[in-house]
Amino acid sequence: MQKFWKEPLLHFALIGGLIFLVYQSIGLETDQAEDEIHVDSSDLKEMIAKWEMQWKRKPTSSEFQKLIDQFLQQEVFYREALKINLDHNDEIIRRRLAQKMQFLSNDFARMTEPTESELESYFKTHLEEYRLPAKYSLYQLTFTGDHRENPIKDAKELLSDLENLPFDEVEGKGDQLSFPFYYEKVSTYHLGRQLGEQFVRSIESVETEKWIGPVTSGLGMHLVFIKEKVEAPIPSLNQVKDDVLRDWRYEREKESAEEIYHLLKEQYKITVDELPEENFLSEDYSLKSVR
Fold first, then answer.
1. CA 87 to chain centre
2. For residue range 93-124, what is the model confidence (pLDDT) as tens digits?
3. What is the pTM of this model?
4. Considering the chain, what is the average pLDDT of its residues?
């Protein structure tokens, strides 16, 4: 696939197609007179579609005429602005047009879908990203600053007394919050939603079958007894195919955007002036390095 994207003929096709899409996207016709404005059926349908999306109904005839009038006013002002170069040196317009070009390059990337072997190869390269979350069965006590003057001290003092206590006697020794004392086979995803990602990261590599802590979370301090940890399996490609395809497309869009940028950039002779003084720069930096 990489070889395909490096073909010179494809480069010319990409540039030509990109320029064509630019004209299409901004509604310009190369043979249209500068003083002629033609509102075609696609323009009219787009006006109606946008109206229906906003108001959840079709426009009346008078509302439709107002849409046409607004379209014409915008088009007239737009063309007159171009005539007097109001688009020049405008940072917002520059960003918007550059963004539209990036969107168009993404459209090129979407024209190519991966083969099964390419998708399988991408999946194998990124296996760990698709691993399902681990599951825990654990007991926990919470100590918060809202209920205690020194939650860390209280948690440490209680920790040494917990080893010989049955769980039914341990329950209630922490602060009474809405979170359960015992979690049964809960995934790290749901555990993180309740007790925070910091808590989940803190218990990833701790021993099981013993009280440990204090463990920090956004709520406060915890004492934790992990009864069981079930490591998550790596799913098959079929189980996560939609996710893999989405990620492949995203990577392809980034590669395509970079490829098209360099192709277009090669058409320009780029020069960058030296700064008159460079002592205000935070690092040793020279504009001569810009290509």
1. 30
2. 888 888 887 777 777 667 778 889 999 999 99
3. 0.51
4. 82
Number of other residues whose CB lies within 10 A of the CB of residue 74: 10
Cα gap 279→281, rounded to integer Å: 6
Residue 274 is classified by DSSP as P
Q: Dump pLDDT digits (tens) for 196-231.
A: 899 999 898 888 999 998 999 888 999 999 999 988
Distance, CA of 188 to CA of 131 (rounded, Å): 12
- Give all domains of the chain, ordered by start, each with its CATH number: 133-230 (3.10.50.40)
Report residue 200 as tokens: 């989940």
Q: How far apart are CA 60 and CA 74, in angstroms?
A: 21
268-280 CB burial, b ≥16 within 10 A, e <16: eeeeeeeeeeeee
Helix, strand counts (H, E) of the chain: 11, 4
Bridge partners of 183?
138
Q: What tokens appear for 174 in the block?
A: 């922490």
3-state secondary structure of 82: helix
